[in-house]
Predict the 3D structure of the following.
Amino acid sequence: MYRKAVFTFLTLAAGLLSATAQDDKSVYLGSHSLNVPYIDEEMRSNNFEFGGDTVIHTYRGIQLTPDLPSRAGWLWSKHALPTKAWEVEFEFKVHGSGSGVFGDGFAFWATTNDPQTGPVFGSVDRFDGLGLFFDTYANSKHSYSFPYVSAMIGDGKTSYDVGKDGEPTQAGGCEADFRGRPFPTKAKVSYVKDQYLEVKLQYQEEGKWTDCIFLNDISLPNVVYLGFSAHTGEISDFHEILSVTSHSLKSVNKPPRAPQPVHQNTDGSFGFLWKLIAIGTVGGLIYYVYQSNQRNAKRF
């Protein structure tokens, strides 16, 4: 009887905890995700296309540029991102032989534009949608240091000022020393239409996420494509994308304004608390039954 009760307890606990995990907020998007070997046997991808100087190393990563001057490459999704809410997490690596001067950086895109080589981190200017720039070289003086991550919401008409590193049109940004790190460097971009855009980075230590950008009341065009691009000028670096994992967000509770931490749903917290109470109650009953059985066994 005791073993049966323990089995029942463990089954109940697993079920409750599993239900809690399934309350989560996202659906995996294979159409916007990339992992080794990146391409099929015919050297193609069903979901992404690439061009310029981009090279696919099937078990090492997607190299947008080599560590050589005057190179540019891009990687672009063939399918549009979800209209209302999505999250893209990607691992990247920026490194090279330069120890003092290097550049120029790479960009993450969620725009209406077709893939095309251009002057803005390897892609086109006057884009329509989100441009997120991982800039490693300062073309002018600023009050902040480089490497620097900045966001611009393009309207299809406004130009990105390369000479001023996009500062006149910058919607938000942060200093982030992501170049040449000895552990995986990552970024996570979360978007909910008409609510917010959030960017978190992992560059200080593995597994530690740092807040970078939070923008309220953001609305991108309904049809945007996921993309990455990079370029080098007289100075250079390797710019590599190692993996991309995308999700469509189901839960769109709006976080508070930065720099406050992301809001946790109180209803979900109370629900989880009640589940823990239920597990504890069942565990207590099992312990009571076990003690009763032990006393009865001693009598006889």
Notes: Helices lie at 2-22, 266-299. The mean pLDDT is 83. DSSP finds two helices and 15 strands in the chain.
